[in-house]
Design goal:
Helix content: 10-25%
Number of domains: 2
Strand order of the largest sheet: 2-1-5
Distance between the termini: 41 Å
Structural class: mainly beta
Number of strands: 11
Shape: elongated
């Protein structure tokens, strides 16, 4: 099964699944076939971009509210101070003090720091 994100103004509005019978020719998946299928099925839907359920392409599996910049999908920004890294993951301005125990601290946007939970 192939998954496709419907993108409007750079934001994912829905994700639909297209059966392999539609997207595959001679055993090879063709992204454009899925896009054409969805465009024919939903003519006023706008742009479709294939997304990978296991995030092997385009950095992340697209979800509702994710953004698409023409290269990859990014989850919604968790806090205004966080920045997107090259792997399309949001990073805080201050690293987490204990990456092995995320439950021990929570992000405080006002101080842009981690505080005990």
């Amino acid at each position: 099964m192939a998954h496709y994100a419907n993108v409007a103004d750079g934001v994912v509005t829905r994700v639909l699944v297209v059966h392999n019978d539609v997207t595959t020719i001679d055993g090879v998946e063709d992204e454009q076939r899925g896009i054409d299928f969805l465009t024919d099925l939903l003519p006023d839907s706008g742009a479709w971009v294939q997304t990978s359920y296991n995030a092997t392409t385009r950095h992340n599996y697209a979800g509702l509210g994710y953004t698409w910049d023409g290269t990859g999908f990014a989850a919604p920004r968790p806090f205004p101070s966080w920045t997107l890294d090259d792997d399309y993951q949001w990073q805080p301005p201050t690293p987490h003090p204990d990456p092995d125990d995320y439950d021990a601290h929570e992000w405080d946007e006002a101080s842009t720091s981690w505080v005990p939970a």
